[in-house]
Amino acid sequence: MLVTVNQHADPEQVQAELQGLGLWAQRLDSHNGPTTLLIAPYSATVSIETLRAVAGVQDVHAARSARPRLDERVRQAASIGTTVIGPGAPPVLMAGPCSVESEEQIQSAALMVRAAGGTLLRGGAYKPRTSPYPFDGHGEVALDWLRAAADAHGLGVVTEAMSEQHVDQVARVADLIQVGSRNMQNFALLRVVGATGKPVLLKRGRAATIDEWLLAGEHLLAAGAPDVIFCERGIASFDASTRNLLDLSAVAVLKHQHELLVLVDPSHATGRADLVLPLSKAALAAGADGLLIETHPDRRLAQSDGPQALQPDALQALGEACFL
Amino acid sequence: MLVTVNQHADPEQVQAELQGLGLWAQRLDSHNGPTTLLIAPYSATVSIETLRAVAGVQDVHAARSARPRLDERVRQAASIGTTVIGPGAPPVLMAGPCSVESEEQIQSAALMVRAAGGTLLRGGAYKPRTSPYPFDGHGEVALDWLRAAADAHGLGVVTEAMSEQHVDQVARVADLIQVGSRNMQNFALLRVVGATGKPVLLKRGRAATIDEWLLAGEHLLAAGAPDVIFCERGIASFDASTRNLLDLSAVAVLKHQHELLVLVDPSHATGRADLVLPLSKAALAAGADGLLIETHPDRRLAQSDGPQALQPDALQALGEACFL
Amino acid sequence: MLVTVNQHADPEQVQAELQGLGLWAQRLDSHNGPTTLLIAPYSATVSIETLRAVAGVQDVHAARSARPRLDERVRQAASIGTTVIGPGAPPVLMAGPCSVESEEQIQSAALMVRAAGGTLLRGGAYKPRTSPYPFDGHGEVALDWLRAAADAHGLGVVTEAMSEQHVDQVARVADLIQVGSRNMQNFALLRVVGATGKPVLLKRGRAATIDEWLLAGEHLLAAGAPDVIFCERGIASFDASTRNLLDLSAVAVLKHQHELLVLVDPSHATGRADLVLPLSKAALAAGADGLLIETHPDRRLAQSDGPQALQPDALQALGEACFL
Amino acid sequence: MLVTVNQHADPEQVQAELQGLGLWAQRLDSHNGPTTLLIAPYSATVSIETLRAVAGVQDVHAARSARPRLDERVRQAASIGTTVIGPGAPPVLMAGPCSVESEEQIQSAALMVRAAGGTLLRGGAYKPRTSPYPFDGHGEVALDWLRAAADAHGLGVVTEAMSEQHVDQVARVADLIQVGSRNMQNFALLRVVGATGKPVLLKRGRAATIDEWLLAGEHLLAAGAPDVIFCERGIASFDASTRNLLDLSAVAVLKHQHELLVLVDPSHATGRADLVLPLSKAALAAGADGLLIETHPDRRLAQSDGPQALQPDALQALGEACFL
Fold first, then answer.
1. Nearest to D16 among C19, C249, C300 (CB)
2. Does residue D5 sit in helix, strand or coil?
3. Chain D CA closest to residue C296
4. Which residue from C2, C28, C32 is facing B62, i.e. has the nearest CB?
5. pLDDT for D241-277, tens place per residue?
6. Using an 8 Å Cβ cutoff, are A241 and A216 in contact?
7. Domain limits of chain C?
8. What's CA B101's distance to the chain center, in Å?
9. What is the DSSP letter of B199?
10. Predicted pLDDT at D295
11. C282: which chain D residues are within 8 Å (Cβ-Cβ)?
12. What is the pTM of this model?
């Protein structure tokens, strides 16, 4: 976005006024045209109308929105089964194990989740694994176990679709289809998932800019998804103290600038069960509409991502601190 | 850190027990020695004693602490003038303008800060500037204005020392000496600042790992500083939506793993006045002992970092939301 | 990897010997066991046998290889149609437009590529696009145009498969199937592509560690791919001077440590046609087995990635500098 | 930089022409003004005159240069003692140990460096250390040993100034004063170093953008330095395979876009003696004016950064490959 300065105005004065609005502006001059003030992306949100009204501003230039469908979702809540998420609704807890490992495990997990104030049960039937050799999910049967456990405890279901070929299966049981971080820009998958007509939980890629993330959401809406819920789960970083780097400023940007639906997954973001509680509180304080938490009845037995899962006591404590 | 597995124990079983403790362990084998389980840094915090007690663990190997002086500061509060910061004390608000621009400006700022619940007044007399040409602070006279304004409103003073040659001047007026982000590993400066015997606010470098940041604090303590308060202010990132990338997981690591004193500066972290409030709340929820907030009586007039400063109303709202 | 120190040896002496081998080692002590020296990943490559022979070393502990199939490909060349790539062969030039836009365009491109010393023609029939709305490839018909142009000029074909549903089509015409950066960890796609039995060009994800990249290659081999050629194309960074950040140290690591096949795509890495030539030379000097270059007969007309494409003169100059 | 489009021209046509010049342009519209095309920083270098001549371009807007003194150094060689560096001169080798550890060590090093084709001897008398406790240099006496060794072998001297208080000492013996990566934005130090009137080797900060790096060079020139030689030594990254991430695209940008003097330090960039040779060749191919190489007569004995130092044979091989 940029403004041009009226020929009779003092560019420095206009720049000061923009600064007063919270805008970082860089001055660009030309031989014969008006002075231009280019506004940095890390500026406060200000409407075109407000800019136009600044004394000395001749004109405001802006790019046409690249996200017309998301623009229509601004400040809208979404319904996931019986759960409402977003403006006007209390924050939402979605929790469950990384993988659906057995009927018993997912039933126990559902009980924990419900007790902690959760309304959606998560669990993977198809698991992306960095290496080709470890356990990668029980597939279709696990979807049935997951649905049954959720139904038995009055929960909705969120689960990941990894392959275009499994989207139908997943859509059959899910109230909310998850697209994982590694598939955020798997556009073929986005197209098929969007076409199911189910709402989608779109995890952020490890190096995705906020713009790229939003445009992946636009892909889903363009393909037919009724709602997209963005989920921050940590980005790439140079520090090894946490598994990924939780980016709560992105959450604030999505919530307070773009006014879209956004969840936080502190489990994958940190990899550390001992930091999930404080960072869950921080996520909600930053504006998140809810949390996605990894939990396991007994994490010693977990076949994937065990160390970061909350055990029953810790999940209950988190539920009491944030949801009950 | 690593554990060796007892010859008669099953390494997989030991690995499962470690997973139960929230530890990510990688198995390393040898021809004739015991199996070793190497624990990833992004694991939950577990004491050596706890590890030693795990069934099947033969021995625990750990590096000697590289930070003996910081280790003695664990779980200790610090006194900055009459302000107590840390365990047992309520969160602290330090606020003020980027630069001390005039006697009037800093007096107005002090009034705002006091009204919002602040106890320390910040303001720069010497300013690091990316370019050599813009305004870089009024120097010694600004230190006097700052001290006078703080005294007039019952506040302490925090201000930055940028040059070894100015440390004495700064120490004369400051209750807390700030070392800026760009100087976090300016070891010559750390030595001189530490030698003043004043407590130090140590901002994190834009690409500093948590370990490097802690060791810079150890430098200060080794040089004579009585206390170090770490301050997260955003790191380098690939996204331009915010000026830097606020890292609240580092705050959680400092607070909940290392149990040291940590502040957050959401103003520099985001560059966005419109995101300071939600990220301030998030910082305190993540465990920060207080906030460092940029504020200006009229940011149109600010000579540096104006767009990110909170104006009086916004600072008051932040004070009421978090401190009053 | 780690070594344990013989009880009668001096750990500092052993550490010095490891340093002599180019290894960064951290000392970990225990109450009753031997001292352990943990070797940092950014150390020179040294074999287990060499370590074992160091005076004072009791034992060497290492993880079992997570990449058994890649291990068998070490120091092996691959054949892509009539082109040999890798040890013993001269560097390879693959070039062509981002998208196959018309029969004429791809025929002109093939002529340019052949003249510049290229042996494979690249061009996209299916294009991943950050936004859902712009041109995303002509699909199947473009594959036919591409094959015909390559055949007419004695070139092989490399083109991208983006969807599991199109892999068969792509495999029908391609000598080398490209998996794009955004799909590096699209494991469902890797499985289908690997199962075609064609060699694969695997681009690095924007935030993929070298280990993750190699494991994605292992996925392909496990699924049936006969050969994997890794392709560095730039990673995420905090600097906007280039479109991505070209990582030639990764190329050196793949070539000189892992001894696998690696190409460089300086066009996507930089986004800058004016830097393609010097960075092409640098890539080959770092050890790359070849280059993937974006080129267009008239980049004013390009429907995607035009600004980074080399025009005929520049491609010819690059060919003469590096391949002819 | 941006262009405005003539009222009677078609913005898409102008955008295509810019694309033909290698420019990425984003279209910004307004209600009543001309269409603006904003040029991305990762575009090819094109002069204002060229842009002005594009059909349909009404006007070109650009920021005034923030680096007037660097602009005068464009395409200029520099003399460091008897060594000429830059346009028209062959690449330069500066080498030596991390620390000057003894008279004998630095004499041996000087012999090695001379034999390998080096013209400047490097060695630290004052060493920045992440921790306060290890060896940090022998100080002033080491400066004398360094000068004597250089003189004995007909070499110039490059050595680091870390403290404002030691700059005079350092300037007394150095032909080229090094400012280290951690002090790139230690503006107080830059001022004192610049004021000595000696040429300066300015290492890049681990998270410094190219613009920040150039502006730090401008600080030096503004303070009186006659010449600044930039030195890339690796930036922060998410991959642990190398100690830092060597950024050769920054070298290409400095050389081919800004046309300034630039060296590469592959030793610190990688931490790996086994990768120094291929990445040295790559650095020169990318356009570097020379190399800064860490070397040690016997790296087992090195008191700092030993693992990355080249031993005599390897330095000689590098000299023969690149300089002799």
1. C300
2. strand
3. D20
4. C28
5. 999 999 999 999 999 999 999 999 999 999 999 999 9
6. no
7. 2-61, 68-322
8. 25
9. -
10. 98
11. 248, 252, 282-283, 285-286
12. 0.97
pLDDT band at B32 (very low <50, low <70, confident <90, very high): confident
CB–CB contact D188 B205 (8 Å) = no
Contact at CB, D38 and A38, closer than 8 angstroms:
yes
Nearest CA in chain B to A309: B22
Beta carbons of C268 and C233 less than 8 angstroms apart: yes
A32 to chain B, closest Cα gap in Å: 26
CA of C219 vs chain A CAs: smallest distance (Å): 5
How does DSSP assign D59-100, residue by residue? EEEBPPPS-HHHHTTTT--EEETTEEESTTS--EEEEE-SB-
The pLDDT-based confidence of D31 (bands split at 50, 70, 90) is confident
Give the pair of three-digit tokens for residue A45.
Answer: 């949100």
pLDDT per position as a tens digit, D105-159 = 999 999 999 999 999 999 999 999 999 999 999 999 999 999 999 999 999 999 9
- 8 Å CB contact between D140 and D169: yes
Name the DSSP class of D112.
H
Chain C positions touching D41 (Cβ under 8 A) are 240-241
Contact A279 B239 (CB under 8 A): no
* CATH 3.30.70 given to domain B2-61: yes
- The model's pLDDT over C200-218, given as tens digits with 9 standing for 90+, comes to 999 999 999 999 999 999 9
Under 8 Å between Cβ of D301 and D102: no
Percent of chain C clearing pLDDT 70 (strictly above): 100
Q: What average pLDDT does chain A have?
A: 97
On average, the pLDDT of chain D sits at 97
Nearest-neighbour CA in chain B from A299: distance (Å): 5
Query: Which residues of D fall within a CB distance of 8 Å from A30?
Result: 4, 59-62
pLDDT band at residue A317, thresholds of 50, 70 and 90? very high
pLDDT score of A276: 98
Which of D43, D237, D249, D315 would best serve as a mutation to test chain C binding (most C beta carbons within 10 A)? D249
CB-based contact B38:A323 (threshold 8 Å)? no
| Binary contact (D28, A1; C-beta < 8 A) | yes
Confidence of residue A142 (pLDDT cuts 50, 70, 90): very high
**How many CB atoms neighbour CB B299 within 10 A?**
24
pLDDT of residue B136: 92
CA distance C5 to A13: 70
Using CB atoms, pick whichever of D270, D281, D298 lies closest to residue C249.
Answer: D270
Task: Give all strands (DSSP E) within chain D, no chain letters.
Answer: 2-5, 25-28, 36-39, 57-61, 78-80, 83-85, 92-96, 120-122, 156-160, 176-179, 200-203, 228-232, 262-264, 290-294
Confidence band of D33 (pLDDT split at 50, 70, 90): confident
Question: Do C2-61 and C68-322 fold alike per CATH?
Answer: no
pLDDT (average), residues C248-254: 98
- Mean pLDDT on C92-100: 98
Residue type, B44: A
CA distance, residue C218 to nearest chain B CA (Å): 19
**Which residues of D are less than 8 Å from C249 in CB distance?**
241-242, 245-246, 269-270, 275, 279
Give pLDDT, residue C32. Answer: 81
Closest-CA distance, B197 to chain A, in angstroms, reads 31
Report the gap between the CA of D216 and the closest CA in chain B (Å): 7
Could you tell me how many helices (H) and strands (E) chain A has, helices first?
A: 12, 14
- The Cβ-side half-sphere exposure at D14, using a 13 Å CA radius, reads 29
State the Cα–Cα distance between residues C267 and C278, nearest whole angstrom.
12
Class for the domain spanning A68-322: alpha beta
Whether C33 has a pLDDT exceeding 90, the answer reads: no
Pairing state between β A36-39 and A25-28: antiparallel
Q: Tell if the CB–CB gap between A59 and D29 is shorter than 8 Å.
A: no
